[in-house]
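Thread: Newbie trying to understand structure tokens

Hi all, I'm a second-year student working on a class project, and my supervisor (Dr. K.) asked me to get a predicted structure for one chain before our next meeting. I've only ever worked with sequences, so writing a 3D structure as a token string is new to me. If someone could post the tokens and maybe explain what I'm looking at, I'd be very grateful. Here's the chain:
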Amino acid sequence: MIKKRGYRHIVIAAVLAGALGLAGCGKKNVDYELEQTSNSTVENQAGTTNGTSGNGPLEDGKSEDDTSIQVSKEDSIGGISRDLGIPTCVNQELDTEGTNFDKILLEDDSIRVPKRDNMYTALFKDQTIDADFKKMIAEELFDTESGIFVYPYDEHTRIADDAVPMSEIEAIFDSGEAAGNYEVDRYIGKINGKIYTIFFQPGDMEIAPSFYVNLVYDDTITDEMKENYISMHYFERSELSDYYYLDDASKSEQVNDNMSSMDLQQAMDKAREFLYNIGIEDAMVERVSTLVWNATTDSGYSISQEFNGWYVDLIPAVDEQPVYQPDAFGIDVLLYNRILYYTQKTKYTVTFNDEGLVSLSVENPMVRTDDTQKADGLISWDEALAALQDAIPEVYQDYEGYRVIKFNDIRLTYFPVLDGDENKIIPIYVFAQLDTMEEIRDDWPIQLMMINALDGSYVDIVQDEGLKNIKGDDFNDSFFNNRDDADETGK
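---
Reply by user tm_fold:
Sure, no problem. This is what the structure looks like when written as tokens:
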């Protein structure tokens, strides 16, 4: 929920602005247009496809590496940065008065800001996996003339000796139980003549509402396969061939081992089309990899691989800009106060090849209930820093963990809040501290402050009190006692 508090922006902003002028974080060349890469100018992640709008330019990333399939990471900024006075980098100290910190630092050499002239707000609903939703999804996906039936088996993974024979699967379409009132969670149907299962997970406090669609294919292990020590075969992501990676441009590479006739742009369009067809419009591509068919031994050693198709991860977005979804388990001020907060993230995965869909995963679907509204009157960078300075003493009251806090991941982005009875995505300033370990995750902060860009209020990551400490006192006591013991051992 949004905590509204006053902030002393007039005096503090002037002081901080002066500090920024002395920070010396580097003189940058500013380019207000997207730069042309070696092959082509990349302005959109995806073009217009069957009524979907194409993805827009990427949010500014941390890497300055450039490839033929991504936007250049030079200091190209949009109107928001100019209008709000947001610098491209920052290196300064904040006042520690009212805290137990020795230092509070802002150190980020590439502040992330949407390359846009405006930001927006949007209302979303909590998607309930009820009978009406199951019916809508099943009938959108499956060919209704072929019938939709209850899937009578517990496991959808059909591997080796435990697999349900294809003859029994096919018999469901002749004598199986019809879907009826959609009171169960497992169904089977056909898409373009191929058999698929769909499994709904209504969700609970620990598990987000989700559903999963999987191609049912004949995974019989033939005698020839056995002679070659193959004991299972399945589809998976190729970890060796990322075509596109939003969070870290340096991981992106163009490879040529994909047998699919679709190129990268067509694959991104196709993934979004799959989601659009089931009512999910507000998504953008995060990662694209090659889909690989893998034949392995019992121990997982690959005997044969075929790189054919696409494995696409997507995330929620507003105006083609990503929604910030941090994990809360590493935030030290929460742990210090013995709070375990369970965030439920929204994510989508679509895998497919030239022959059609292979799998679809939808976790915690985010469905907009109204048109987006332009967010007027966003607070400036100086006002955001003043609000941050004002909020820190209250958030870190009595905190005696880290002696120095260093906000090294700073961005203007979107975040979902509970505002009364509504789920609302709003523009926020994020001031996060990421650990400096190698292979860092930018959604796993160890310190986090968020400021509402609409009114300067502090935004708590704890939006739903019901998701705090949901595993009970015994689990919490065990977790924090073990953590205390580890801290003592490390001293």
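A couple of things are worth pointing out once you decode it. Residues 472-490 form the longest helix (19 residues). The CA atoms of residues 202 and 293 lie 30 Å apart. Feel free to ask follow-ups in this thread.
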